[in-house]
Specification:
Length: 381
């Protein structure tokens, strides 16, 4: 049975009672008496000792360890915490006079002060424009414990400015395509979950769980699924999701599906998020496998709910979150069925939905291989 740790008040009461029982005839010590003060001080020290023993107990097992002790338990299974990933972009447009040059490492500032640097020297041609690649500058972890990778994600059309003016080059720079591959340092809870999976799933030289573990070890990847023979005999499909604070893409990876750039095979090579994962899996996969890393396809589901047409914004927001929760838990690109009963239960648990009727969908929802359900519009009638 669990040990009931005494509270500070209980320890003080026990000490005072012990003092009274040992010193016959002195009565209850006064509040500011030496005996009372000594009893309270001793109780405080005992309370700290109990706290330290609690901390030791938590660090003694992998499922409750924290900080460096968690990292130590994880290292036994060769699991390391995912570092922040810097966002990159290879379609940043520079303008200026023909012959203008932007040196490699030139610093660019976003409006909020976030910085990027050019990956290589960029020469402006006769058209007065040039396209180059930039990479986000990750902040010092001591200044930003998240690692600041996700903060570097930037929508297309955002304008940056040169940190130092360059002769013949305009100070304003435009990002043509969104920067979406930045990721923060892995949270401790996510790190612990991956570590426990490593303890539970002994490597099998390339089974389903191995591919998923290899994908999840890549910065930014939060979910992964394996589909055997996705593209025929000898192939393995790995679907990934990049769930983060940037909800504009619903967590779907940004890039193109395919195999690793390191693979010596005439097939479509993956790019973007899929490319990062494919390249990370390649050195670990069995030599006979041809691994395709893919993004799931959005299976958009629209909902119609009647009976609560007067629901306020708080209720409708909670209903949307409840639906998202069911789709998140039940969705699987391996092909699955979302039970209508699960949706009904989730919606009914939201305050203010008494008497609702889910008009559409009216039956269980089946998704095909490669599809992941996403909430579309929710209409109230």
């Amino acid at each position: 049975m669990p040990y009931n740790r005494p509270t500070l008040s209980e320890l003080r009461a026990r000490n005072i009672a012990a003092i009274e029982s040992e010193l016959k005839g002195v009565g209850t010590p006064l509040r500011f008496s030496n005996l009372n003060i000594l009893g309270s001080a001793d109780a405080g020290l005992a309370y700290l000792h109990f706290g330290y023993l609690d901390w030791i107990a938590k660090q003694s097992v992998p499922w409750s360890a924290t900080d460096e002790n968690l990292a130590g338990w994880a290292s036994i299974k060769s699991v390391t915490r995912k570092a922040a990933n810097a966002g990159t972009n290879n379609a940043t447009v520079f303008t200026g006079n023909s012959g203008g040059t932007i040196p490699a490492g030139t610093v660019l500032n976003r409006g909020d002060g976030y910085q990027y640097t050019t990956d290589a020297k960029i020469d402006i041609g006769g058209s007065g424009t040039a396209t180059g690649a930039i990479t986000a500058v990750l902040p010092d972890p001591n200044d930003d414990p998240t690692g600041g990778g996700d903060a570097g994600n930037t929508p297309a059309g955002t304008q940056l400015t040169l940190d130092v003016s360059i002769s013949g080059v305009d100070s304003t720079v435009t990002i043509n395509t969104a920067i979406t591959d930045g990721a923060d340092i892995e949270t401790e809870d996510a790190f612990r979950s991956r570590m426990l999976l490593a303890y539970q799933n002994t490597p099998q030289g390339g089974n389903d769980e191995d591919y998923e573990s290899w994908a999840l070890a890549v910065s930014g990847v939060t979910r992964a699924w394996t589909v055997r023979r996705l593209m025929g005999a000898g192939t393995v499909g790995v679907y990934i999701m990049i769930d983060g604070s940037d909800t504009s893409n619903h967590g779907f990876p940004v890039g193109t599906d395919g195999i690793s750039q390191l693979e010596n095979w005439s097939a479509v090579k993956a790019t973007g998020d899929q490319g990062r994962v494919a390249d990370a899996i390649y050195p670990q996969q069995p030599v006979t496998s041809l691994v395709y890393v893919c993004s799931p396809i959005q299976h958009v589901i629209n909902f119609t709910i009647s009976g609560i047409s007067t629901a306020d914004s708080t209720t409708t927001t909670a209903v949307a979150a409840a639906i998202d929760g069911v789709l998140f838990e039940s969705g699987n690109p391996q092909g699955t069925t979302i039970l209508l009963s699960d949706l009904l239960i989730a919606i009914s648990n939201v305050s203010g939905t008494s008497g609702f009727i889910l008009t559409s969908p009216a039956a269980n929802i089946t998704t095909a291989t490669g599809e992941l359900p996403v909430r579309g519009t929710v209409t109230y009638t």
